[in-house]
Amino acid sequence: MKLKTLLxxxxxxxxxxxxxxxxxxxGVHLLTTWLIFIIATxxxxxxxxxxxxxxLGQAAFFGIGAYTVAIFLKLGLSFWIGLPVGALICFxxxxxxxxxxxxxxxxxxxxxxxxxxxxxxxxxxxxxxLTGGTFGMNNVPRPTLLDFNLDNNRNYYxxxxxxxxxxxxxxxxxxxxxxxxSFTALRDNPIRAESLGIHVRNYTLMSFAIxxxxxxxxxxxxxxxxxxxxxxxxxxxxxxxxxxxxxxxGPGYFLGPLLGSAVGVVLxxxxxxxxxxxxxxxxxxxxxxxxxxxxxLLSIPERIRARKLAKxxxxxxxxxxxxxxxxxxxxxxxx
Amino acid sequence: MSGLATGxxxxxxxxxxxxxxxxxxxxxxxxxxxxxxPAFVMIIFMQMDxxxxxxxxxxxxxxxxxxxxxxxxGLVDPLFKYGMMPIVVxxxxxxxxxxxxxxxxxxxxxxxxxxxxxxxxxxxxxxxxSNSDIGTFVMALVLVLLTQTFITKTVTGRAMQAVAQNTExxxxxxxxxxxxxxxxFAINALLAVAxxxxxxxxxxxxxxxxxxxxxxxxxxxxxxxxxxxxGALLGGLLVGVCENLxxxxxxxxxxDAVALIIFMVVILFKPQGLxxxxxxxxx
Amino acid sequence: MSTHLNQRQPVxxxxxxxxxxxxxxxxxxxxxxxxxxxIFGVIGPNGSGKTTLFNSMLGQITPNSGxxxxxxxxxxxxxxxxxxxxxxxxxxQTLQVFGKMSVRDNLIVAAQEHHGSMLSRIFAPTxxxxxxxxxxxxxLFNMGHVAHKKAGELSYGQQKLxxxxxxxxxxxxxxxxxxxxxxxxxxxVGGISKLLKELNHKQGGSFVVIEHNMDFVMDLCHRIMxxxxxxxxxxxxxxxIRANKEVLEAYLGS
Lengths: 335, 283, 254
Fold this sequence. Notes:
The complex is a heterotrimer. Chain B is an all-alpha fold. Chain B has helices spanning 2-24, 31-47, 52-79, 84-105, 131-153, 155-165, 167-172, 177-203, 209-224, 229-249, 255-269; strands at residues 121-124, 127-130. Helix content of chain B is 74%, strand content 3%. In chain B, strands 1-2 form a two-stranded antiparallel sheet. The radius of gyration of chain B is 19 Å and the shape is globular. In chain C, the strands form 2 sheets. Chain C has a 6-stranded mixed beta sheet, sandwiched between helices. A 4-stranded antiparallel beta sheet of chain C has the order 2-1-4-5, covered by helices on one side. In chain C, helix 3 runs parallel beside helix 6 (156-168). Classes of the chains: A mainly alpha, B mainly alpha, C alpha/beta.
């Protein structure tokens, strides 16, 4: 990794560790939410950004993870078992969701994921014996970890931060491994990829499964954060927001979810000073952002580089043209 | 039945959806808001003491300019070559902006809206039907059929079809592709105005009226078949009727879930919609 | 039962391959063999069924009847994935590189799934140990100066070279090249011919090449098959084909 990138990462880490000490409860809560959504959108980024699939159902997995943890805690079982179990359920559900992806394309795949999200939401809403139906589940406790008091929001933040870092490093490792290239090949040219021996089917399923698993972990952490969950948090609308976060941050860029989640979670809060207009400004900001940077916020360095290259090329052309002109005038003069 | 009436409103919005998709590959998540805005624009014009008919006419013009031309040039054209993702997200942002812009800029309260039909009720075979139900259904049907006829029978319409099916060939044939696409957007805008006229009297004008309508229309379009204009009609009517039946015989709480359930069933068995054509994986 | 002691088994044997689209018979009873290390050209006027033949051989479409054998094994109904693992490589008529990856990564991904399981690949190094191989090919193709650029940023001719290089990364026993010179600057055609000859020499694989550029085909191929209207008109050495009156007629006559 380049030295510059490493320094930036360390700087960001330091900021992340120190900031909660300067914030009040609300600020810590917001920061924790941001981290949780980073995990969820990292997973979605793998599915739609790196593997080029369409998924408008991430909130369903978020919800499955949340409800699994809530149910486990209600049954008196440990959070630390509920969390991986939720992730595993999501993983296998993600594989299931990947199957339509093998058969239908683009927009119809998006619809299928919407259908999935809807199905899960309906189950959440109606199966009162399991999920509390529309009343949701309240009094979800914080997890217990040794002697730490995780009811303290700052402590819980650090736990979430640790999980986020672990998930991030795991994803980084995956992207750097040959899997990363296989996903990209699958995204950019699945026909060629298959003729090169890449198991396009399996990688497609995996992209959904892993993305789902990440959302499951995020959901579990979220349940204990807000301590009250109901189906309205996991609608198609939420999936669409997560999709927005990935696209705005930059699909296929590793750190895209950081920025995207910031836009989706933190930005609306910052805009509250504008009172009634804050969502209007948010919506307009999203539109302008997309028009200006269709490849997401993290495409800025690339655009600057492309513009620089284009300028160098046109400068070179101008120089050549000028030189040719001088040569011909000299030629004429001497002729 | 009023189910048909509601359904035909969904059909109008859904038709716009499918037209936009076919012509430009755009999924417009702001379609519901596209219906909401004309409603408010008409109210504003009427508050300026312009006659109802005049307001409608003016709104049509405004809609074509803003929801048609401005939308196309400002949002769709620049993002077109970047694929579906940026456009989808931009329309999401647009729907948020429109919804909250109206809420903050005009009113968060529901407002009254005049109906174009006289308020009579008929009692036939034990069922109560209102004049506006019939009128809505008939008018929507007429509009949908009109649009269909325009597209299939006129030269311009056929050119639009050509553009929708194969943009490159159409361009080679000398068809003015951008203009054809604009016409599609313009028709969508006008259909939205019509939908506003039909739905607002009953459900009142409110900044979030677009949300549920847009969702239902979206599902209706998918149910009917996203690449088939007739599908929009079928999907819309199906959803409208089933919703009403569910509300009457099962429970009103389930009304919203109906569209979702039908949607899911269709997606499972026929993802391209009831009337949709299978789109093959392109080699 | 062979009667010649020296007869090698053909790498590819196609027997009576037929493929029809409705009433149109694109390929009608084509049979030929390709020996190990041989460069086998396929030429014919447009519409003679060459691409359909290719696509059938590559598992992209299923033939109506006939048999395709790879080193004696029946591969008629296998798809592109299985064929790749059995040692078949190909290039496409239209450019098919991975534009957002660097040239070097394009080459690495072209061979990384040839062996091993998906699970093991999670723990493998980034280049799957193929870095040296990729560098070798990059040097052979004279692309050292663009190796780290994104493939999509290169010129058409350069991308075509990447495309070809990708097919050779896994050292396949059989490579099918679909019009490798299409759209390429005429000055580069000789270079491609030289590269293919070198790869043939180095890796020892057999090639089947569709091309319209006659000079290229005559110079490069050991044997050539002429197809007309879905059938085989002639198979022979370049010299034989050039002298074949029927072939001349087929190209100039109709």
